[in-house]
Amino acid sequence: HMHHGNSRQRRREKRINILTTALVAAVVVVIGLIVINGLRGNDVDTTASRVSNTGAYRNLTVDGKNYRYNNLIENVLYIGIDSEGAMETSQAYGSAPRSDVVMLVVMDKYHKTLSILSFNRNTMLEIRQYDVEGNPLTPVEEQLAYAFAAGNGGTRSCEITADAISDLLGGIPVDRYVVMNRSSLPYINQMLGGVTVTLPDDSLARQFPGLTAGNTVTLTDEQAVAFVRYRDTDQAFSNNDRMERQKVFVLGAIDKLEENVLQDPEQTWEQMNDSNMSDYVMTNITQGQYLNYVNILEDLDLSQPNFYIPEGESDDSEELEKYY
Hints:
It is built from eight helices and 14 strands. Helix 4 crosses helix 5 and helix 5 packs across helix 6. Residues 1-27 and 29-52 have low confidence and may be disordered. The longest helix has 25 residues, at 238-262. The chain has a six-stranded mixed beta sheet, sandwiched between helices. The protein has a two-stranded antiparallel ribbon with strand order 1-2. The protein has a two-stranded antiparallel sheet with strand order 6-7. The chain has helices at 7-18, 145-149, 155-168, 185-191, 221-229, 238-262, 265-274, 287-299, and strands at residues 59-62, 65-68, 73-81, 99-108, 113-119, 124-130, 136-143, 176-181, 196-198, 216-218, 281-283, 306-308, 314-315, 322-323.
C-alpha cells in the first residue's frame, strides 16, 4: 500500500514511521477502529512474565470429536474501557478503569472469514491480581470487567485481560490488543463517515427522538457514543440490550470500513495521525502488522461477518450480576 515517489509522500511516510505503534488492523475496529501511536507512556514492566502457554490448545477433544487448531488465523483483542480523556498508563495497580466491551476479532485466512466474539462483561473468570506495587497475588474469580482494572492501566492491564480471554478459550494465543476509551468513539464515527444502523429496540428513544425500533439512521458522533455505551442501570440485564446494539454498530462499521478505509488505508492513517485520537488508544500492534492485517482483510469475505455472543447463565441474586 505504500506508493513511493513524490517528496510529500516520502515526508508522510517518515512522519508515520516515527510513531511508536502505528495504526491498527483495519477491523480490529470492532467498536474501535484503526488507531495510531498507542503505548506512548510505555510501562517499565513490559517484560512482565505472561502465563506460559504450553501449546495444549493445539489439539482439543470436544464432545468426543478431535479438533486441531487452525494456525491460519490472526486473533486481535479489542477492549473498550470506561474512562474519558487521555489514557494514563501509570495508575496504581487495582485502580485502573474497568472494561465495558471485550471482543476478540478473528481473521481466518484459510476460510476467508471474519468472526467477532463479544464477551459479556459480567463473565466470571479467574483473574490475576497484584498488590499496589505490582507484585503477583493469588488470582480471584470475578467479572471480566475487572480484569483491566487489576493492572496499572497500561500494558499489564492489557495482558491480564488477554490472558483471561485466552484461558476462557482453551489457551489459544491472544497476544495483540487494541484498547480504546469513550473519547475515541466520535473519531471512529467520523472516520467511517457516520455509521448507519437499524435500531434493534427503543432503548435510546427517550434520549434521542428518532432513534426508535426499526428506524434506519446514520449516527451523529454524539448518537454513536450513546448507541455503543448507553444502558439503563435500573434495568436488570440491560447489558444484553447494549451488547445487541454493539453488534449492530460493529456490523455497520464493517460496511463503512470497506468504503472508507480499505480503499485508501494511507489516507485513514494520515487522518488519524492528524487527530488527537492517539490519546484515547493503546495498542501493541506495529505498523508492519497493521499493513499485514489490511492485506488479510482485503482477502476476507466481509459481507457476512460472524458475530458470536457466547451463551451462558446470569445470576442476578447479588448486587453485581454474574454470568457463567
